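Sequence of Uridine phosphorylase (Actinotalea fermentans).
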Amino acid sequence: MATPHISAEPGDFAPDVLMPGDPRRAQRIAETVLEDARLVSDVRGILGYTGTFDGRPVSVLASGMGIPSISIYATELFRFYGVERIIRIGTAGGMAPHLEVGDVVIANVAHTDSSIVGNKIPQIHFSAGATFSLTAAAADAAGVGHRKAAKPADDAPAAGRRRRRKNGSVYVGPVISSDIFYSDRPLTNELLVKHGTLAVEMEAAGLYAVAAQEGKEALAICTISDLLFRDESLSSAEREQLFDKAVALGLAAFANA
Ligand SMILES: O=P(O)(O)O[C@H]1O[C@H](CO)[C@@H](O)[C@H]1O
Ligand SMILES: O=c1cc[nH]c(=O)[nH]1
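Predicted 3D structure, token representation.
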């Protein structure tokens, strides 16, 4: 029983699915992290695989870019393939000044400018939140615990700040899931940072809204691929390959939540 966008048969997907945006990142995760991975869907080049990790069945399916795209794949997996939990393995632009390229953000909530999510329930500003148990398990696996991650003092010199910490720090906090990649809204970005937003990406809020609607579970774990307020970014090849820590946290969350 294929759906319009997934060619797999019932039972082909595991209840737990890792979901990167990029189909080539999905293929790399399947080939380098999962055991005995087999291709279960390739409609539109959106590759889906099922294998095992530490003896537990796990699938990986790309979402494509943006809330409409991830909403289609998440809905079809939850509604027609028995999927219970989806963890997005994304990239994101760092907004908060203490973030560095290579850091990881566990998105406990996702603000959005998307009307699909914002207007989901008439007259209500829908709150797009991750599943608590997955968030807590991912944070525990990262050693972040449930306390706010330590930030460098505001008056520390920038170079000193960078020397005192390693790339690959993990933070738990809000992201903005925007419909606009090439955004020209400096005031909006400044206000989002003032309100504690860590990073910008394009899918988490849509995934959380679909999970809420379908009564399922979801989380987004994003690796910082570029910095909005500093001239630093990864190439497309690096964005395809930089997922190790996020995948490890996602798999730990599936195992321990
Ligand atoms: O790397 P992925 O997971 O696709 O995530 C980010 O990258 C894309 C934009 O380049 C958007 O999908 C954004 O959310
Ligand atoms: O949506 C995104 C993803 C990565 N980097 C950005 O600046 N925006």
